[in-house]
Amino acid sequence: ARVNSRSAFLPRSGYDAPVRPTSASTMDALRRWAVLLDSAFKVPGTNIRFGLDAIMGIVPGLGDLVAPVFTLILLGTALKMRVPAVVLARMVLIAGIDMLLGLVPLAGDVADVFWKADLRNMALLERHARPGVAPTRGDYWFVLGCIGAVVVIALVPFLILIWLLTRFSAV
What pTM did the predictor assign? Predict the structure, then answer.
């Protein structure tokens, strides 16, 4: 077995590292669970689909326990498959947004119908399940946009404080 000396010492980027195979049956089972949680049912007379996540969210505590378990399974599978770090970050942010939306009683359940975090994360996992699939610009923009939003949200109280202090001549 001859070793290519050039490739032996070069670091691998996140998306060209060997993907650990996950069986097709595992991916099929994850897809079925994502559909069951996010879009298994249809509102009659519309194209609006919803899943058990929205239904369980109505019961206090139940939806808050079941949905994160599936998210952890998806993230664990993505880690095992060596999905690029930016895609993992995007998956975590999608789940975080879902969690934040779910904090609002009833409105969070309605948001679950439209946000469909499990299907979004499953699509990302399936897209990167093949070796050599690089992250897209959209992956980077989504992560950077979320980081930017958090920075803006963190700065707003300080800007308001500075404005109040200058407005009332305290500075």
Answer: 0.76
